[in-house]
Amino acid sequence: MNRNSWKMCVIDDVVAVIDGISKSVKWQEHDIQLAGTATDGEEGLKLIEEVAPDIIITDIRMPKLDGMALTEQVKSMLPNCKIIFITGFTDFEYAQQALKLGAFDFLAKPFSLDEIVEAVRKATGALEEERREDLVRLELERKVKASLPILRQEYFQLLLHHRGGEEHIWKRWDFLEIPLAKQKFAVMVLEIDEFAEKCEHIPIHQAESQRFSLQNIVEETISGYTKGIVFRETMDRFVAVFNENAHFDSLMLAEKCCQNIQQHTRFTVSIGLGLGVDKMNEIAGSYEQAIAALSYHFYTGGNGVFGYHEVNTSEIKRPYCSADMEKELLYSIRSGNSHKASELFMRIFADFAGTDDMPDPEYFVSFYYEMAYTMIRVLLEIVSREDAAELVRSVRERNMAGLTSLSKMQEKLLQLCWKICEMIERSRASEASVIIESSVRYIREHLHEELTVQSQARHVHLSGSYYANLFKKTMGLPFAQFVTQERMELAKKMLVEGHQVQEIAIATGYGDRRYFSEVFKKHIGITPSEFKLKYWPG
Questions:
Q1: Least confident of 52-56, 137-141, 222-226
Q2: Strand ranges of the sheet holding 269-273, from the earlier edge strand across to the other edge
Q3: Which of 57, 180, 233, 406 has the largest CB neighbor count within 10 A?
Q4: Quick check: bond before 478 cis, omega within 30?
Q5: What GO MF annotations does this protein's record show (predicted)?
Q6: 341 in helix, strand or coil?
Q7: What are phi and psi of 529, to 5 degrees?
Q8: Could you report the per-residue pLDDT of 439-469, keeping only the tens digit for each?
Q9: pTM value?
């Protein structure tokens, strides 16, 4: 067997299908070794346990053990095995569930041999790619073990967070053979954008390899310009300490690191750059400046560089929005008008964007919570605490998940606004429903009387225009049209029961027989007498 070939099993309860797949294709020409066949799920599972195939072609419906159960067991034994289902059209939803469990592909019956070959070819392509990734991963893991000695990293962590005397610094410096000149330093802090989200579903060793790859790129970029050392500070953050000199600009170097990471990986980074310092015992100050500069990526969303000289360090006092605008916003929320409230929020956000200065990002985080608590207070004035409990809890627990940029903060604030407006509108709609239901009962009990919008509005203690709009929104048609519809239904019922037309005219509030007949024909299409004949032919 060629060491690059792949083992394959075919499992189906129809022997003709097994023969067609296993004997009609010269699998060795595709680097495939046919390791065995089986005619039911249990027999197939035994075969799989014996030969450990790379690829399995199986029917989704089989006796003794179906394809779903087989997939679960195979994936627990052979997580990288590629399972290709062959299935009838009616099994489509079933096959989709199997794909979620980890099946690689499925083919609907009837299928051609060319389709089978193509599916297997795709499976081998995926296996080969995984093999290449494993080789790369193993190589990266080897480099991880061979680089960045722990003592150096701990030493620099100490230097960045504690200012000490130079004599003590140089003793350990020489002992650890730090590859830097002993003067002219700068610090930059690199944070991987959305690293936790991007690596949430991959194994820990793969995430580790990704971090190592990013660190390698930064180290190689810095080494092209000056001496430097790079070490990991947190899961998604690196620190680089390097020597400044007259042959390059530190901001340009930071931007080059950012560009190289974006070009060679699927990640981007945000970088904060501190000011240059002359002595090693001063790098803690440069580090603090780099952290401060890094926080300003709140405005950009990342993938860029902020130097400390670019950030605004003055104490800026400014209102988040005018009192009138805030009052208008709260009126909109109180009425459940999400469209208007969203429009006002966008105006506030536009005012933020229209300023030249960039205050400390904490200003905007404070604004987020100030507005969130204000909206919650409005909500609790209208709906019960029980109904609002979950939303209130999410705000009170300071749920900052995903609040890493100004745009995300704005998006989250808008989402909270929409949820609150929706709850208020639903509460208002519930109240309106009770009012209109009462009004409808009254209408149906008094169809013989004169019914107008104004009289019914007085009945439920509302203004005429508000009542008319509320009635139409709740019932789906205008008040007058609803009354006429109800009267016509009553008229048809009474005609079928044998009542006289004049009697019906009075009962439906029209009084005059002739006028009633005209209205009836207009809406029903025939006269009352013609309608009655349909049910009283004699």
A1: 137-141
A2: 228-234, 237-243, 185-192, 269-273, 304-307
A3: 57
A4: no
A5: DNA-binding transcription factor activity; sequence-specific DNA binding
A6: helix
A7: -65, -45
A8: 888 888 898 888 898 988 888 888 888 888 8
A9: 0.44
Question: Is 262 within 8 Å of 209 (Cβ atoms)?
Answer: no
451 phi, psi to nearest 5 deg: -120, 120
Q: Tell me what pLDDT residue 179 has.
A: 86
* Tokens found for residue 21: 């797949």
Nearest in space to 52 (alpha carbons), one of 86, 102, 9: 9
Hey, what amino acid is at 21?
I
Note whether 442 and 456 are within 8 A (CB): yes
Long-range contacts of 479-482 (CB under 8 A, 24+ apart): 479/453, 480/453, 482/440, 482/443
Beta bridge partners of 267: none
- Long-range contacts from 307-313, C-beta under 8 angstroms, 24+ separation: 307/250, 307/251, 307/254, 307/273, 308/272, 308/273, 308/274, 308/275, 309/275, 311/358, 312/357, 312/358, 312/359, 312/360
Q: Tell me the two tokens of residue 58.
A: 């199986």
Using CA atoms, how far residue 297 sits from 247, 273, 359, 512, in Å, is 28, 12, 12, 78
8 Å CB contact between 267 and 214: yes
Cβ atoms of 86 and 60 within 8 Å: the answer is yes
Q: Which residue has the tokens 């100030």?
A: 370
Alpha carbon distances (Å) from 267 to 201, 231, 258, 424:
15, 18, 10, 41
**What are phi and psi for residue 84, nearest 5 degrees?**
-110, 120
Calpha distance 224→219 (Å, rounded):
9
